[in-house]
Design a protein that fits this description.
- With 129 residues, this protein is α+β, with helices and mostly antiparallel strands.
- Helix content is 44%, strand content 26%.
- α1 (14-52) packs across α2 (62-75).
Length: 129
C-alpha cells in the first residue's frame, strides 16, 4: 500500500494529547462536583412524596410536616441538605394541599467560579390519602 500524503497519516501529537487529557479531567471534575446535588435533591423529592402517603395529611400542621420530613430525611442522611423552615411551603388549593420545597444551591468550582443549582420539588396531597 502506497500512501499519497504522509502528513495525513500522522498520529496524535503531544499537544493534542495534552488538550484531550485536560478536557477529560475537566469533564470528570464537573461530574464529580455536579452529581451529588442531584442525588440530594432526589432524597428530598422522595421524602416529600412519601409525606403525601401519610394518613391525615390534610389535618397536619406545617410544623408537624417539617418534623416528619426531617425524620424521613435523617434516614437517608439528607437532613442537612436544606433548611426546611425556609424552603418548605404548604398551599391549600381546590381541596388539595400543594407541598413544595424550592431552594438554590451554590457549589464553588475554583476561585470565584461557582455552579448554581435551582431545584423545585412539588407534590399534591389529595384528601383521603
Amino acid at each position: 500500500m502506497k500512501f499519497q500524503n504522509k502528513y495525513k497519516q500522522r498520529g496524535l501529537s503531544f499537544w493534542g494529547f495534552i488538550w484531550g487529557s485536560v478536557l477529560v479531567v475537566c469533564t470528570a471534575y464537573l461530574l464529580v462536583i455536579g452529581i451529588p446535588p442531584y442525588i440530594d435533591n432526589r432524597k428530598l423529592h422522595n421524602a416529600l412524596e412519601s409525606l403525601t402517603e401519610e394518613p391525615r395529611i390534610m389535618e397536619m400542621s406545617r410544623a408537624k410536616m417539617i418534623r416528619l420530613l426531617n425524620r424521613k430525611l435523617n434516614i437517608d442522611y439528607g437532613d442537612q441538605i436544606v433548611n426546611l423552615d425556609k424552603a418548605f411551603k404548604v398551599r391549600n388549593a381546590d381541596g388539595n394541599r400543594n407541598l413544595s420545597i424550592d431552594y438554590e444551591l451554590v457549589v464553588p468550582l475554583a476561585y470565584n467560579i461557582s455552579l448554581l443549582f435551582d431545584f423545585e420539588n412539588h407534590v399534591i396531597a389529595k384528601p383521603g390519602t
